[in-house]
Every structure is written in C-alpha cells, then in structure tokens.
Amino acid sequence: MTLGEIRRLYFIIRIFLSYGLDELIPKTRLALPLRLWRRTLFWMPNLHKERQLGERIRLAMEQLGPVWIKFGQMMSTRRDLFPPHIADQLAMLQDKVAPFDGVQAKKQIEMSLGCKVETLFDDFVITPLASASIAQVHTATLKENGREVVIKVIRPDILPVIKADMKLINRMAAWVPRLLPDGRRLRPQEVVADYEKTLIDELNLLREAANAIQLRRNFEGSNMLYVPEIYSDYCSETMLVMERIYGIPISDVVQLEQRGVNMKLLAERGVQVFFTQVFRDSFFHADMHPGNIFVSYEHPEDPQYIGIDCGIVGSLNKEDKRYLAENFIAFFNRDYRKVAELHVDSGWVPADTNVEDFEFAIRTVCEPIFEKPLAEISFGHVLLNLFNTARRFNMEVQPQLVLLQKTLLYVEGVGRQLYPQLDLWKTAKPFLEDWIKDQIGIPAIVRALKEKAPFWAEKLPELPELVYESLKRHKHLQHSVDKLSYDLRNDRVRHHQSRYLFGIGATLLLSGTAILLTRPQWDLLSAVMVAGGLVSWLVGWRKTD
C-alpha cells in the first residue's frame, strides 16, 4: 500500500470507531480476532454515545464521502433486511446530505455559464433545495421563457475523494482471490472497476443530460413514467439545468395514502417501468433509490412516476436480455432444469458443468423458498441463494449484471414499502412472456424485415454484379481447390516413391557393407551395391524436395 492509501484506511477506521460502529462486529468466535485487534491497536473511544446506532451509521457515511453514501442509499431501500431505526436514517442519505456553501455553488455556476447568474436566471435561491452525495440543486426561473428550473451543481473537490476510496477498495479487491478459495470466480477487481467507472461517469453532468433526454424520449406519452425536460443549452460537465417538477416523494407513504393514490397499481407500475426499460429499451435508470423517484399529484387513481437523476444508467446486450428473461420465466415456472441449462448455454458457468447436479442444487435451495406465498418471497433472497449455490459450480460474477441486480433490489424494496403484498413475480411474468414471444414469433420476423428492408433496397441494383462476382470467385476458388488437390496427390506419390527408394538404398548399402566385411578384398559386386544404394538415396532425397 502507498502512504496515501494507508492514511485513507486509517481515516476510515478512525471514523468507524469514533462513531462506535465496532459494535456491529458480531460477538462470535470467528469475529474474536477483529474485536481483539480493535482493543489492542485502535483504542479510540465512541465519541457519539448519546446518538442512536442508525444516526451514527448515517453520519459516518456522510463524513466518509460519496462512495459510502451510495452504499448507504442502496441499504436504505432494503427495509426487509434492516430495522426501521436504521433504514429511516439511511433514507436521509438520498437527498438530505449536508450541503456545501450556496455562495460557492453560485460561483461554480457562474464559472460554468461564463456570466452572472442574474443574466440568464431570475429568482435564484442561494439555499439548496436538496443535497446528495455527488451534487446539490438550487431553484431559479429561466429568463427566456419564465419556466421554473432547478440547477444541479457538482460538489467541489469530490473527484480526489472518490479516486482515493476506489484505489483503496481496488487494492483490497486484489487480495480477495488470494484470501478466498473462490475469490477468482467473484472477479472482484472487474466489479470494482465497473463501479468506479459508474461513479466517475456520474460526475459528468453532460452525460446525465444525454441519459435523461434518452429516457424522456423512451417514455414520451407514457402514463407510467415522466422524465423532466433538460435545457441542454445551459448544461456543462459540472452544471445541469432541468425543468422543476412537483411531486410526492415515493418514501412519503403517509402523504400518498392521504391523497388516495392507488398503492397497488403504483407498486406494480414500478415493476413494469423497470422491466420495460431493461427489455424493451435496453436502457435503464440504475439509481432508482427513493430520493430520485416522485409521484405526480395528478390522477392519484392512475398514478404516474417522475424520475430524476439519470447519472447512472445500464444496458444489456441482446443475448444477455434473452437469457435473463428465460431465466426469470423458468424460475416463475419452477423449471430448475431450464435454469441450469441456461446458465451453461450463456457461459455463466463452465461448459463442463454437470447439468443434473446443478439442477438438483438449485432445486434444493429454491423449493423451500417457493413453499411460501409468492407475495412473501423476496427476489433479493432468491438471487442471494442462487449465487451461493452457483459458487460451488464456479459461476463467475457477471459485471454487466451487477447494475441490473442492484436496480432490481431497489425496485423490490420500494415496491414492498409502498404495497407490502406486492407480488413481484405475478407482475413481471406476463411482461416477460410477452417479450419472449415478441422476440421469437411472427412480430420479430416482420420487425427484422422492416429493419433490413432499406439495406436490401440499397443493395438490390447491385445484385446482378454481386452474383456475377460471386460466381467468378467461385470459379477461381474451384480452380484453386483442383490445383491444390492435384499438387497434394503428386506430393503423396513423390513421398511414397522417396520412401521406397530410401528403403532400397538402405538395403543395398547394408548388403554391400556386409559383403565387404566378410571378404578380404574389394570386389565389383559390393562396389555396385554400395553405389546403387547411394544413387537410390540421392534420387529419393530429390523427390522429397
């Protein structure tokens, strides 16, 4: 480790201990070395004993920076894993992170614009509307059209903190294959590198603007999801200007119920929005924590989501989408043989995996889970059990699926918070079955014909020439094949003759030498035999050339 990494690691440990988070270490025999290490090497006391555990975890993550805040945001959606006093505090990391100075934010905005804020905006509010791990937002009004907007500005000096943390995490990830028997299968460094790229990309607000424009176009006219308009003329790498939206935070269940929002439909639409993004568009919002999701005040009986903060998006290629959809459907139908075969076909487990053994292992893990009502089954738990099972069969972590898994856990966590009886399986299965049919049925053929028609129309006038060239190449190829076949046949004849001559020559040489050894004087017969042997070898050697 470098001196900088050691200093950062010490800082992380000091923050954890100063907030008393060492009490999270389980009091078991396996954890005894960690507790002894804490008592002997790190004697720092808990400086916040008066605060509750959840608040201490939140404050520690805020102080450690964006990498840790992102982790806390993800944990906040899993209320099935954490008690309310922890989940409620972690939820504050979604949009209630301590802001930086508004005056400094205004200076950064003016630097990006190249002019005073008042030149382009009215009613700029110096106090931020919300503040998160990467950036904070201020409200204003566009002078050119009088529309209310929010201005998002990146936190100052955030990149070095992210780089330092990711460098340290990558260093630790390099040790995982050495410390764990199946560490190489987990591909920890690839996962860390992918996560680092995602975080660095999120610092470029031009990328976020492009993502939001794409997502808005994908759901234009939809009653499921609304994406605010982006004013790209005012955007830069460190500043984003977009339409201001008014909605109910998705985490405010009490207000949603008071306004008569159809909670069951809202939860189901969250699942539908996710699967539509993944399978229809192959472009999905990968940071769908509650701080980025609102519900429109309009039409509570037909609720519509409002999505913001498109800094992190994901996509899957055609093969991964098909395998994933078929895997989901096989799970829904409890067809474990199909699940095992799909894992082998996709390359997610080695090709020499015993399918029968893999199928039996999946059934052993999943059958007890499916004995419960589907509405009570956590998809997160199913994934966790599946991956623990696949570990025995050398399944490698798929970096392209990590964002998808995280987003699915977000969706399930939010959906269960809105409507605890949400049956994610029942909601998703019809969508996936329709998608599969659409990909392999008559509509897929018609769509492929439509997509290829312009290309074929362009190439049609060239068709006679292409046919002529193809026949001409075929004729030349046939001639080359015939010549090669003739040459190979001649080579085989020559090699056969050379082997025959080498044999004759060896026989004559040995016979002539034997005669010379048995007779005291040189005679003509032995000389002829030796000469004949040499001539046979010479001719045989020339035929091998």
Shape: elongated
Q: List segments where confidence is low: pLDDT < 50 over at least 5 consecutive residues.
A: none
Tally of helical segments: 22
Mean pLDDT equals 80
- Which percent range fits the helix content? 55-70%
Sheet of most strands:
5 strands, antiparallel
Radius of gyration: 35 Å
Quickly give the structural class: alpha+beta
The end-to-end distance, rounded to whole angstroms, is 62 Å
Q: Classify the fold: give the CATH topology of the domain at 102-314.
A: Transferase(Phosphotransferase), domain 1
Specify the CATH class of the domain at 102-314: Mainly Alpha
CATH architectural name of the domain at 102-314 = Orthogonal Bundle
How many beta-strand runs? Answer: 11
Tell me the fraction of residues in β-strands, as a range. 5-15%
Summarize this entry quickly.
With 545 residues, the protein is an alpha+beta fold.
SSE arrangement:
Elements: H1 3-18, H2 32-41, H3 53-64, H4 66-76, H5 84-91, H6 102-113, H7 117-120, E1 121-122, E2 130-131, E3 135-142, E4 148-154, H8 159-179, H9 183-186, H10 188-202, H11 205-218, E5 225-226, E6 239-243, E7 247-249, H12 253-258, H13 263-281, E8 284-285, E9 293-296, E10 305-307, E11 313-314, H14 318-332, H15 336-345, H16 355-370, H17 379-391, H18 399-418, H19 424-440, H20 442-459, H21 463-518, H22 524-543
Parallel strand pairs: 5-10
Antiparallel strand pairs: 1-3, 2-3, 3-4, 4-6, 7-9, 8-11, 9-10
Helix pairs in contact: 1-8, 3-4, 3-5, 4-5, 8-10, 13-18, 13-19, 14-15, 14-19, 15-16, 16-17, 19-20, 21-22
